Automatic annotation (TrEMBL):
Keywords: Membrane, Transmembrane, Transmembrane helix, Transport. The lineage of its organism: Bacteria, Bacillati, Actinomycetota, Actinomycetes, Propionibacteriales. This is Transport permease protein. It is found in: Cell inner membrane. The gene is xapG. The keyword Membrane applies. It comes from Microlunatus endophyticus.
Length: 293
């Protein structure tokens, strides 16, 4: 009828994702699509968890038993084989540090190892479905975080059993866990891209992660590198995990707030990893379907 306002056109229920041809796409639009399709990454992660039976009772139990066995083995090596120093930390403190640091390190390790094979294992999804490919390694990071969550109450119990006390500064550990999670996102995207071009990279990754763990404050405390040669100290302190795991352990075990540069350095490594990993992944994702299939 005349004078009657016409009804607004119905919004489309569909979204179109067009791969960019060269270089980087419009990043603002790209990450808007990533956010809109976040449920796709969630479902990919859930299917991966169901496929590995991590959501079952025995699967969840193994997520706790496996790192606990590793912590026990490393504790025996450090305390009984190397010997316990009267001036060093107590055995209980050492075991609490081992479990907390190993659980946190495995958060990043699981994100990296799962993310490395995420694109090459996507198969025909790359060819038949249009979506921002960055969602694939991000779903792997979500899987790693899901596997990490059951270890939190386990560590809190261990913390009490070894004679330590809960304190308010432990809440600050969330910041460093967040840095590890963001750091793992960037590494997952970077590793996924490298695996597309170099398939053997995923096979070398477990050895790289094992060496990285030895260089990180997992089997040793940050305070124990004092008095070492300057070259050794520079190597240890230059490790991105040094500030993230070191600050995390300091808040949980010692109850001391780390220095400001520890917080800033941890945030720097996390942001740098995301920027480099995401940009490298996005700039190459247009070739994935051709190289994977």
């Amino acid at each position: 009828m005349a004078g009657q306002a016409s009804a607004p056109p119905e919004e489309s229920m569909y979204q179109q994702f067009t791969p960019h041809r060269a270089g980087l796409p419009n990043l603002v639009e790209y990450f808007k699509l990533v956010w809109r399709r976040r449920e796709f990454a969630t479902e990919m992660s859930k299917s991966r968890v169901r496929g590995s039976h991590d959501n079952t009772v025995f699967g969840t139990a193994w997520l706790l038993i496996d790192p606990m066995l590793q912590s026990t083995i490393y504790f025996v090596m450090i305390t009984f084989i190397r010997g316990h120093s009267s001036s060093g930390p107590t055995p209980g403190h050492t075991f609490a540090h081992l479990t907390s640091a190993l659980f946190a390190f495995r958060l990043c390790q699981n994100a990296l190892s799962t993310g490395a094979k995420s694109v090459t294992g996507a198969g025909k999804v790359l060819l038949n479905t249009n979506f921002p490919r960055l969602l694939i390694p991000l779903s792997a990071v979500r899987t790693g975080f899901t596997r990490f969550l059951p270890t939190i109450p386990l560590y809190l119990l261990i913390h009490l059993l070894v004679g330590e006390k809960w304190h308010v500064t432990m809440i600050g550990g969330i910041f460093f866990l967040g840095c590890l999670l963001v750091f793992g996102m960037g590494l997952s995207a970077l590793a996924a891209t490298l695996t597309v071009y170099f398939r053997d990279f995923a096979n070398f990754l477990p050895y790289i992660m094992r060496l990285w763990m030895y260089l990180s404050p997992v089997l040793w405390l940050p305070s124990q590198i004092k008095g070492k040669p300057p070259a050794v100290q520079s190597l240890m302190e230059g490790n991105p995990m040094y500030t993230m795991l070191g600050g995390y352990s300091q808040l949980l075990q010692n109850g001391h707030v780390p220095a400001l540069h520890v917080w800033v350095t941890a945030a720097f490594w996390a942001i740098a990893s995301v920027v480099v990993g995401f940009l490298f992944f996005i700039s190459r994702e247009r070739e994935f379907a051709v190289r994977v299939l």
